[in-house]
């Protein structure tokens, strides 16, 4: 699939204020500083569609973008060490949880993981929660250009093995990406195309 047009629709912190259309939605979420905004900009060929920042936690609302007049890309707040108050973090968690549980238009969530790091408890717990809720998701490994090519496959295998040691019978679909080299762009968009 090729993205011909991508336009911002709305930002909000309440699921009931999300677009009323029945268009399918694909949500992107991950720990702060995982490269989510850069990935979204790479997928859509728009340099500033999603706001990038050197400071983690830039995304603080549910952001809807209309893609090809056919589906919504949803940019969700990151979780982890964003420099915001505990009160704000709880607020993010509440409306992100509400989004996943209540949003019937959601087709698939993409959980972003920085390929350079060993499995983090916060990511594993989040994926376990997604699985327990029956929310379909895939893993997107980011920043593959920052890892030696010879280390990519062993790193992915080790990560998947960690998942399978837990509550998983089989691993979710996964993609290896790099926003700077555009690695994984076609595979990820083609996968979304199969779900539309």
In brief:
This protein has five helices and seven strands, in the order E-E-H-E-E-H-E-H-E-H-E-H. By secondary structure, it is α/β, with parallel strands linked by helices. Helix 3 links the parallel strand 5 and strand 6.
How would you describe this structure to a colleague?
This protein has 196 residues and is an alpha/beta fold. It has a single domain, classed as 3-Layer(aba) Sandwich (Rossmann fold), CATH 3.40.50. The protein is 34% helix and 21% strand. The chain is built from 5 helices and 7 strands. Strands 1-3-4-2-5-6-7 form a 7-stranded mixed sheet, sandwiched between helices. Strand 3 and strand 4 form a beta hairpin. The chain is globular and about 45 Å long. The chain starts with 5 loop residues before the first strand and ends with a helix. About 3% of the residues have low confidence.
CATH superfamily: P-loop containing nucleotide triphosphate hydrolases
Q: In the CATH hierarchy, what is the class?
A: Alpha Beta
Per the CATH scheme, the topology name is Rossmann fold
Q: How do the strands line up in the largest sheet? A: 1-3-4-2-5-6-7
For the report, how would you describe the main beta sheet? 7 strands, mixed
> What are the low-pLDDT stretches, counting only 5+ consecutive residues below 50?
53-58
Mean pLDDT: 89
């Amino acid at each position: 699939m090729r993205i011909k047009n991508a336009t911002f629709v709305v930002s909000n912190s309440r699921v009931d204020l999300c677009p009323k259309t029945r268009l399918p939605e694909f949500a992107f979420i991950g720990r702060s500083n995982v490269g989510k905004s850069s990935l979204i900009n790479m997928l859509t060929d728009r340099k500033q569609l999603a706001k990038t920042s050197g400071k983690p936690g830039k995304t603080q609302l549910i952001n809807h973008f209309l893609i090809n007049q056919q589906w919504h890309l949803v940019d969700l707040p990151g979780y982890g060490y964003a420099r915001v108050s505990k009160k704000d973090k709880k607020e993010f968690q509440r409306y992100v949880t509400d989004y996943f549980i209540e949003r019937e238009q959601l087709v698939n969530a993409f959980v972003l993981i920085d390929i350079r790091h060993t499995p983090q408890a916060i990511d594993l717990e989040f994926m376990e929660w997604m699985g327990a809720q029956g929310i379909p998701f895939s893993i997107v490994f980011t920043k593959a250009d920052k890892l030696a090519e010879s280390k990519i496959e062993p790193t992915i295998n080790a990560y998947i093995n960690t998942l399978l040691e837990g509550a998983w019978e089989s691993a979710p679909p996964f993609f290896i990406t790099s926003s700077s080299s555009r690695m994984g762009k076609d595979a990820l968009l083609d996968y979304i195309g199969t779900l539309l």
